């Protein structure tokens, strides 16, 4: 028995170990930095308060985008179960702030993240939330590469909100997201543009001066412009139908839409059906 135990212990690897060794697109430093916020993830006044506030924009973006593309049945448009029967994948879901909000609209949502700590937080919070139907929400410690390999063209929508700015290889990331998306399905992205204003706003102001997020949360070299995202999507037969700027009023912890995409922006694209 002792020999068996030693052999088993030596061969065991946690999901995060597998992710770290097999998928170079996951930056372990980024995962560890975000995981440090796990105990405060669901505090709406804590260091993740901006993500909580962002739901006021990104939930309607996804809901209305799916309505506009005909994914929602007409008799559900004005009802609380507006997204019922739709399968949504949230990539890089963290502790589940957006995942739960989408599940409350009765969609079936799968949240994936390479952080065991954050998936643990998300799972426990969902268990304790009486307003959620448990069948509507699942969480997995996985990368998009792992998940897409097992779920080709499964989802009506794939969401990557505040994830692209933490990804090493944007092209590979988008390719894998689209691999899990049905033809005719929608890809929703919110991220940070690569501009001088974004460096000043998202790093100098947000991290170093006002401490809106922990220092080291962002790396300007990983930011990407909306035009470059559109180019990548186009190369995979996706049509971008909406790009909106987003502005964070940190003094009131509120987000608003703007025409300016120099810092934060949201994008909605549709995967074209083959003809």
Automatic annotation (TrEMBL):
EC number: 2.1.1.64, 2.1.1.-, 2.1.1.114
Binding residues for Mg(2+): 162, 165-166
Cellular compartments annotated: Mitochondrion inner membrane
GO cellular component annotations of the record: extrinsic component of mitochondrial inner membrane
Record's bilayer topology term: Peripheral membrane protein
CDD domains cross-referenced by the UniProt entry: AdoMet_MTases (cd02440)
Pathway: Cofactor biosynthesis; ubiquinone biosynthesis
GO molecular function, one term: polyprenyldihydroxybenzoate methyltransferase activity
Record's catalysed reaction(s): a 3-demethylubiquinol + S-adenosyl-L-methionine = a ubiquinol + S-adenosyl-L-homocysteine + H(+); a 3-demethylubiquinone + S-adenosyl-L-methionine = a ubiquinone + S-adenosyl-L-homocysteine; a 3,4-dihydroxy-5-(all-trans-polyprenyl)benzoate + S-adenosyl-L-methionine = a 4-hydroxy-3-methoxy-5-(all-trans-polyprenyl)benzoate + S-adenosyl-L-homocysteine + H(+)
UniProt: S-adenosyl-L-methionine binding residues: 58, 92, 113, 161
Gene Ontology biological process: methylation
Assembly with partners or alone: Component of a multi-subunit COQ enzyme complex.
Free-text function comment from the UniProt entry: O-methyltransferase required for two non-consecutive steps during ubiquinone biosynthesis. Catalyzes the 2 O-methylation of 3,4-dihydroxy-5-(all-trans-polyprenyl)benzoic acid into 4-hydroxy-3-methoxy-5-(all-trans-polyprenyl)benzoic acid. Also catalyzes the last step of ubiquinone biosynthesis by mediating methylation of 3-demethylubiquinone into ubiquinone. Also able to mediate the methylation of 3-demethylubiquinol into ubiquinol.
HAMAP family: UbiG
NCBIfam families reported in the protein's UniProt record: UbiG (TIGR01983)
Protein's recorded name: Ubiquinone biosynthesis O-methyltransferase, mitochondrial
